[in-house]
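Students often ask what a holo structure prediction actually looks like on paper. The answer is less mysterious than it sounds. You provide the chain, you provide the ligand, and the output is a string of discrete structure tokens encoding the 3D arrangement of the protein together with coenzyme A.
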Amino acid sequence: MQILGLGTDIVEISRIASMIDRHADHFLDRTFSKSEIEYCSTKKNATQHYAGRWAAKEAVMKSFGTGFVKGIHWTEIEVISQPSGRPDVRLSGDTERFAADCGIAKILLSISHGKEYATATAIACSE
Ligand SMILES: CC(C)(COP(=O)(O)OP(=O)(O)OC[C@H]1O[C@@H](n2cnc3c(N)ncnc32)[C@H](O)[C@@H]1OP(=O)(O)O)[C@@H](O)C(=O)NCCC(=O)NCCS
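The corresponding structure tokens follow.
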């Protein structure tokens, strides 16, 4: 296994809160998968967890080494939370194919959030 890319992102939680306020379900459905919404919406401070996942999606995209490219959809970069709380990345659709074309087989992810900011770091690995 070889490290192919590293990505990081930091998000102001208030920015995500205002997007949720202004666009509600439309924003959530366009950005997050069903299982991400299920996870975040059951938490005491849902916005922190949404912000962490937003940062994770940006970090994953940066780990591809290309930045945002046409054909990548936010919902196709999904954070799956293990029973321990550890976040894993699941890619699907065009985004999965794009990553495979870049030789990426696995992405390691870490998320953290405080009161004002959420941050995530992603490492893209080969087979
Ligand atoms: C995991 C832990 C280090 C998180 O640290 P924290 O300072 O409380 O919170 P942070 O904001 O920095 O990090 C939160 C993120 O850590 C990640 N995380 C949680 N558990 C994790 C684990 N076991 N391994 C790796 N990452 C983990 C998650 O992505 C979480 O964000 P999310 O819920 O939005 O996905 C801390 O809660 C801990 O050590 N817990 C002990 C184990 C525990 O309580 N387990 C309970 C479930 S069995």
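The chain is about 45% helix and 30% strand.
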